[in-house]
Specification:
Blueprint lengths: L7 H12 L4 H8 L3 H8 L5 H9 L14 H9 L4 H8 L6 H11 L18 E6 L4 E4 L6 E11 L5 E6 L4 H15 L5 E3 L7 E3 L6 E2 L1 H10 L2 E2 L11 H17 L8 H17 L9 H9 L15 E6 L5 E4 L2 E4 L8 E6 L3 E6 L2 E7 L8 E2 L18 H10 L1 H11 L7 H18 L1 H18 L4 H16 L7 E5 L20 E5 L1
Parallel strand pairs: 1-5, 5-8, 11-15
Antiparallel strand pairs: 1-3, 2-3, 3-4, 6-7, 9-12, 10-11, 12-13, 13-14, 16-17
Helix pairs in contact: 6-7, 10-11, 13-14, 13-15, 14-16, 15-16, 15-17, 16-17
Length: about 525
């Protein structure tokens, strides 16, 4: 019937023209419709309810190609979390195009589909996000019959979105560090910032602004000349790209190899490499080019160069700095700055170097002495006293906020700004925020001396930390609130009980006693 092809907008327009006094012929000529439809609406034989009911009752016949698809298997794969494109490649690629298949699946299985899109923009070579996949890959040891689980490390360059993956037996520190070494080698360069989550191999103590990093992890990223900015605890959206990459990789991997049994870790890594190559080589729907092509043409040149030698994990030992400014390592003695005398230090012994660390700071490095016993390797720079400011810098916005808080605070953060602006953003944010909180609670005039004193203390001890700055401010505030009362003594006459404080009268006159009063 005619009204079955009538839209609601056309129905409302015909009603409006009828009320305007137009004839059926004029309305039909203007809207290019039949006069019988207009007469039906004018006589009230067609209403919006009947129009929508008629459209809902119109049967929808499936397209011819849909009769060739095993929809039971498709529904099972959809419920298993596999991608629609992979299902189309296997089930319907020979009969129809992917857009047709996707539209029909969306109509038929609307309750199974959810879509979330997040777009983020980054500069080339700026950021790399890393994470472990939650799903583990099983493999069978043919000799013992045991079933093992491989842990998959995944990383993604945020600009080109090129993916890298490697599997290890576990997620311990050696595997974590080895995965980073392989990642940098696969990319052929080093990004400016690496963003992990707060796992213990990377972050020993999480903090919103100033997390404590694992010393071994810090040593690795220092070797490659990059910075680590961990994501906030329980905020996976801080590294949303790698979270999405993990889902893409593991869904594709499990779908392609769902009928395969792996027998070794090397076999899994070969399969992972093939899967990653397929993903990186496919056309990206937003970039309109592949990830690999975007990486090679736009981002690879922006990465920092790799060091001459790859990172190698060394042997660590604890040693106390002797009063003569040396530590005992392998029957030899190596010097360190005398400011650390009596402290327990960590010494890394590698093939050619002996490096001495205090907490996260490397305070000395020497060539390793081989074939000698009792040799003393002394650096004259370690003998005089000096202070080190081995911290990181902040962006210009933090500098402007620090300038408003206090000039000494601005000078302190400006000193850090000259070194690195990416690795320590949260530390500067935390220091400025603590200063602002004191200013808001106690006014700028009252808190200015506290901030100046705290900055001076941090410079004096070379300890620029958010927690230490907060402690110094609290101590200064407590010191200023304890005010001493003015107990000046005023002597008043007429108090005979005070001995020795009366006024001596001239000869021939009586002495007048003096009374004391406390004001």
């Amino acid at each position: 019937m005619e009204f079955e092809r009538t839209s609601m907008a056309q129905f409302e327009e015909i009603q409006r023209l009828i009320k305007a006094g137009q004839t059926n012929r004029q309305i039909a000529r203007a809207l290019r419709c039949r006069r019988t439809l207009i007469s039906t609406i004018r006589e009230g034989l067609l209403s919006p309810e009947s129009l929508s009911l008629a459209k809902s009752e119109t049967p929808r016949l499936p397209p011819p190609w849909a009769l060739q698809v095993d929809w039971v298997s498709v529904e099972r794969d959809l419920r298993g979390g596999f991608e629609i494109k992979r299902i189309w490649e296997e089930a319907a690629a020979t009969w129809t195009s992917y857009p047709n298949f996707f539209k029909y699946v969306k109509l038929r299985f609307a309750q199974l589909l959810t879509a979330t899109v997040t777009l983020r923009e980054f500069r080339a070579g700026e950021r790399c996000e890393v994470d472990y996949a939650g799903d583990r890959i099983e493999w069978l040891n043919r000799h013992t019959g045991e079933i093992h689980h491989a842990h998959v490390f995944v990383s993604i360059l945020c600009f080109s979105q090129k993916i890298f993956a490697v599997a290890h037996e576990n997620e311990r520190k050696p595997s974590w560090l080895d995965a980073h070494v392989r990642m940098f080698a696969a990319y052929g360069g080093v990004p400016a910032v690496v963003v992990p989550d707060c796992l213990k191999n990377g972050v020993t103590k999480a903090h919103l602004y100033d997390p404590d990093l694992n010393p071994d992890y810090v040593e690795l990223v220092a070797h490659y000349g990059t910075a680590v900015v961990p994501a906030r605890s329980r905020h996976p959206r801080d590294k949303a790209l790698v979270e999405n990459a993990v889902g893409i990789l593991m869904r594709y991997f499990r779908f392609v190899h769902r009928r395969r049994t792996f027998t070794s870790l090397e076999e899994i890594n070969v399969a992972l490499g093939d899967t990653v190559s397929r993903i990186n080589g496919k056309l990206h729907t937003r970039f309109r080019t592949s990830r690999e092509e975007r990486f090679s043409t736009l981002e690879k040149a922006s990465l920092r160069p790799l060091p001459v030698e790859p990172y190698s994990v060394g042997e660590w030992k604890a040693a106390t700095l002797h009063p003569d400014c040396t530590v005992h390592v392998e029957r030899n003695f190596y010097s360190a700055p005398h400011a650390f005398r009596g402290k327990e230090l960590r010494v890394k012994i590698s093939t050619n170097l002996v490096e001495i660390f205090c907490d996260l700071e490397r305070i000395a490095v020497h060539a390793r002495a081989r074939g000698k016993v009792g040799e003393r390797i002394i650096d004259n720079a370690h003998l005089p006293e000096k202070s080190r400011a081995y911290r990181e810098a902040t962006p210009q916005m933090i500098l402007a906020q620090a300038r408003f808080a206090h000039q000494d605070l601005h000078s302190l953060i400006e000193e850090l700004f000259t070194q690195d602006t990416l690795a320590n953003l949260r530390r500067a944010q935390g220091i400025v925020r603590k200063a602002y909180s004191v200013i808001q609670s106690d006014t700028r005039e009252v808190s200015a001396p506290w901030i100046a004193s705290a900055c001076e203390q941090m410079r004096r001890f070379g300890r620029v930390r958010v927690q230490y700055f907060e402690q110094l401010l609290a101590a200064e505030k407590k010191k200023s609130t304890v005010s001493r009362e003015n107990r000046e003594i005023q002597r008043m006459p007429g108090n005979p009980m005070v001995r020795g404080h009366g006024t001596r009268a001239p000869q021939g006159q009586a002495q007048v006693p003096v009374q004391l009063s406390l004001v």
